[in-house]
Amino acid sequence: MKLVKNAVEIDVSTDEEGAKSFTAVASKVGTVNRNGLQLTSNSLEIERNRYPFLYNHGEGSSEVIGDVGITYSEEDNAYMCDFVIYDTHPNIKQAVENGAFNSVSVSYYMTDYEIQEDESVLVKNAIMNEVSLVSVPADPEALMANNAIGAELAKEAKNKARLEEIKKAYE
């Protein structure tokens, strides 16, 4: 399994009573993202109603800033999430409301995927891990290295290129 992180934008809404709600497109389906990954419909295994909402993919409990629900929307052809920022983090909540943080990043473990001809990765199945608040989506190449798929993709791409060379030699 490979851990993957994708980044997208947050929508802050205010109801008539002034209460704020936070939603985001966690990941588009059928579109190659900046990381070269493409989720298929219902490819994310969502096993519970709420997941941790972390700060910058933090690994300690102090980075848990809230919780998040994630669902697949056929209408939007995307995984949508709604999140709550706990009262213990009023500064982060205010920063989101002010637009200082405008991105979330969904993290999942790929269990079944296929390398496409354009070297993008078609994710056929993945296990949902968490969603994080991020200020700026990371460089796609850095994400590839951080999520441990970079080396494997590079090896598969090199093998694929070598296979194409061999095929051409025998045509």
Quick overview:
This protein is an alpha/beta fold and 171 residues long. It has three helices and nine strands.
Which properties best describe this structure?
171 residues; single chain; elongated; alpha/beta
3D structure, described in words:
The protein is built from three helices and nine strands. A seven-stranded mixed barrel has the order 1-2-7-6-5-9-8. With 171 residues, it is of the alpha/beta class. The protein has helices at residues 90-98, 140-146, 150-169, and strands at residues 2-14, 20-28, 37-39, 44-45, 51-55, 64-73, 78-85, 103-115, 121-134. Helices cover 21% and strands 45% of the residues. A hairpin with a 5-residue loop joins strand 8 (103-115) and strand 9.
Tell me roughly what share of residues is in helical segments: 10-25%
Order of helices and strands: EEEEEEEHEEHH
End-to-end CA span: 37 Å
Q: Outline the low-pLDDT stretches.
A: 138-151
Number of extended strands: 9
Overall pLDDT confidence: 77
How big a fraction of the residues is strand? over 45%
- Shape designation: elongated
Instruction: Quickly give the structural class.
Output: alpha/beta
Largest sheet: 7 strands, mixed, barrel
Radius of gyration from CA coordinates:
18 Å
Helix segment count?
A: 3
- Placed side by side, the strands forming the largest sheet appear as 1-2-7-6-5-9-8
